[in-house]
Design brief:
single chain, about 180 residues, mainly alpha, two-stranded antiparallel sheet, 8 helices, 4 strands, about 55% helix, about 5% strand
């Protein structure tokens, strides 16, 4: 945080408190404005909404298992504002997991590939390396547990889609995306 300098008569230079606009990052200003029109259009796609809800489910299972003692709040993001979650069904997460989920929601909504592949099978990898590693760790933990936490249908659907994609790729019917 930087402070601007001003002359104060006899005392010389003194620090003025920074103005609120100079301390805000570009990300904070964007978050304050709300979702962009493009984001709102893209999140309206039923497949994108389903993917966002599945990701939120997996992040919640991970957060429950790893961050049980942390303070949690209802997840707030552009996807939540745009109505990606049914009324009153936004996940309750710690701050760290909420940030990771917001990043994943944005990556999913702005994915340019059609049909959208599973991120683990995509050769483009639009996630930052640190986010990709966290996502991999989270999915490995949450995937099997989703079957045991009352979300067997969602977890099984995700697993079946992943296996189907691997089989098609192995048979040569489908080349991996981006190659």
């Amino acid at each position: 945080m930087t402070a601007s300098l001003a002359h104060d008569g006899s005392r010389g230079v003194v620090a003025r408190p920074p103005s609120p606009s100079s301390t805000q990052t570009g990300r904070a200003r964007l978050a304050r404005r709300g979702p962009s029109p493009r984001f709102l259009r893209e999140v309206d796609d039923p497949a994108a909404r389903q993917d966002i809800r599945t990701l939120a489910l997996f992040v919640r299972i991970y957060c429950d298992g790893h961050h049980g003692g942390r303070e949690r709040t209802v997840h707030r993001s552009d996807a939540e504002t745009a109505g990606a979650y049914p009324e009153g069904c936004s996940p309750v997460l710690c701050a760290e997991c909420s940030e990771h989920l917001a990043y994943g929601e944005a990556r999913r909504v702005f994915c340019t590939l059609d049909p959208k592949p599973f991120c683990a099978h995509c050769s483009i990898h639009c996630f930052k390396d640190s986010e990709r590693a966290w996502n991999r760790r989270m999915m490995r933990y949450s995937g099997p547990r989703s079957l045991l936490h009352g979300y067997a249908l969602d977890g099984a659907r995700h697993l079946a889609g992943s296996i189907r994609l691997r089989l098609r790729t192995a048979r040569g019917r489908l080349r991996p995306v981006g190659r």
